[in-house]
Amino acid sequence: MFEPPSWEERYSGDEKVWSGGPNPQLVAEVTGLTPGTALDVGCGEGGDVIWLARQGWRVTGADFSANGLARAARHAAEAGVADVTDWWQVDARTFTSDGRTYDLVTTHFLHPPDGAMVQVTRRLTDAVAPGGHLLVVGHAPSAVFTQLNATQRRAMFLAEDLLPGLPDRFQVLVADQRPRTMTRDGISHDVHDSTLLARRRT
Ligand SMILES: C[S@@+](CC[C@H](N)C(=O)[O-])C[C@H]1O[C@@H](n2cnc3c(N)ncnc32)[C@H](O)[C@@H]1O
Q: Which ligand 1 atom is the nearest neighbour of the CA of 65?
């Protein structure tokens, strides 16, 4: 779950891994922002990238899985948004923006182990343009995830756990846990999405 080989394997077949639709907290927080440039880190099969592109954003999808990025690029082409999307193979744990900045930097359900999401959040802030937004969403710890091992459960976080990763130049707009119904293997579960939205001051 934490290293590229398991994700490469997961994305190697033909079967879709994710729904293809956008994540609800992305839709909730980004609807109403003025479209510009966006970076989605841990983009997987590209559902969020495609939704953003359809809202008028020019989007870079980033992931450490080459197979994931290839799938995402294929889905973007099928959705008719290839011309406003591009792809970047990066490991979020060592991410450096290399001087590139975006009006929106977003990441959903990345969950690196050992509390590393705080450092990932800090790294992603470097890629946010002045006046731009950072949206970080992940699973809040929950008894629902009993099938996961202890390391995986420790990789879940609350939005407020990430606040130490935000430099002073960021204003926190949202830091809470949002209820959501998740369906897995045909069974519905009540879970919470930890949601951090911050804006870089101009
Ligand atoms: C649970 S999936 C979520 C995919 C997508 N964001 C979504 O919500 O549908 C996590 C994704 O993050 C990627 N990933 C996990 N750890 C990563 C890391 N350290 N750097 C970059 N990508 C990573 C995986 O390859 C996978 O595509």
A: 25
